[in-house]
């Protein structure tokens, strides 16, 4: 997940899910865990039907 974010950050959870061949929900859960650890910044609020976005770093 972190490597995918480094390559394409900021990235939507849907984009990360596609890249990593997982569901958007699984990607969102992983982003939440990484954000809780301070490894990524996550904006998981949906805006206009779009998925949340995440980027590396605090």
Could you describe the 3D structure shown?
With 58 residues, this protein is of the alpha+beta class. The protein has helices spanning 2-8, 13-20, 24-36, and strands at residues 11-12, 40-43, 53-56. It has a three-stranded antiparallel beta sheet with strand order 1-3-2.
List the keywords.
58 residues, 3-stranded antiparallel beta sheet
Task: Provide a short characterization of the protein structure.
By secondary structure, this protein is an alpha+beta fold. It is 48% helix and 17% strand.
Strand order of the largest sheet: 1-3-2
Characterize the biggest β-sheet: 3 strands, antiparallel
User: Distance between the terminal alpha carbons, to the nearest Å?
Assistant: 16 Å
What fraction strand?
Answer: 15-25%
Tally of alpha and pi helices = 3
Shape: globular
**Percent helix range:** 40-55%
Low-pLDDT stretches are none
**Overall strand count:** 3
Mean pLDDT across residues: 81
Protein structure class: alpha+beta
Element order: H for helix, E for strand:
HEHHEE
> For the CA atoms, what is the radius of gyration?
10 Å
Topology of this protein?
Layout: H1 2-8, E1 11-12, H2 13-20, H3 24-36, E2 40-43, E3 53-56
Antiparallel strand pairs: 1-3, 2-3
Helix pairs in contact: 2-3
């Amino acid at each position: 997940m972190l490597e995918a974010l480094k390559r394409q950050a900021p990235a939507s959870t849907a984009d990360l899910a596609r890249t990593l061949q997982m569901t958007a929900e699984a990607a969102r859960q992983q982003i939440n865990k990484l954000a809780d650890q301070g490894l990524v910044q996550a904006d998981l609020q949906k805006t206009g039907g779009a998925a949340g976005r995440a980027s590396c770093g605090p």
